[in-house]
Amino acid sequence: MALFEWTEKISVGVKVFDDQHKKLIGYINELHEAMKNRQGKEVLEKIFIDLENYTKTHFNHEITVLKAEKYPDLDEHLRQHHKLVEQLVELKDKHAAGKLFVSSQTMEFLKKWLTDHIMGHDKKYSGFLDSKNIQ
Ligand SMILES: [Fe+2]
Questions:
Q1: pLDDT tens figures, 46-82
Q2: DSSP 3-state assignment of 135?
Q3: I need a labelling partner for 129 at 20 to 30 A (CA). Which of 16, 52, 102, 103 fits?
Q4: Ligand 1 centroid distance, CA of 7 (Å)
Q5: What is the three-class DSSP state of 74?
Q6: For the chain, which residues make up each domain, given as ranges?
Q7: pTM for the complete prediction?
Q8: What's the gap in Å between 81 CA and the centre of ligand 1?
Q9: Residue 118 CA, ligand 1 centroid: distance in Å
Q10: Ligand 1 center–CA 91 separation, angstroms
């Protein structure tokens, strides 16, 4: 079984964003698999880079939509995204510098990193976007 499964419980009610969240979960699972299979450092490094790039792509997409719809909590949402990218880049850089050994603890951190954002922040735009007919 994968480390991290997408379930309806974390749906934000917008198909494209749910799909993007599933893809992010996919990268986190990929990293977990690579860790379990004791893949080399370069393999894990590449997954960190993919995860970072896709996180930025997804965040930009969310912000573009929220901005276009004049989401009232846009600034706070942007702040949260910046914080998440910073945390991810910190992990990626530490790993690249040989100062981080990817462990179960790292994986639990990443799982929580994404889940807490979806549950605590993304869910807040669900009703707003639904009222704008964006599902
Ligand atoms: Fe978000």
A1: 999 999 999 999 999 999 999 999 999 999 999 999 9
A2: coil
A3: 52
A4: 17
A5: helix
A6: 14-127
A7: 0.97
A8: 6
A9: 6
A10: 19
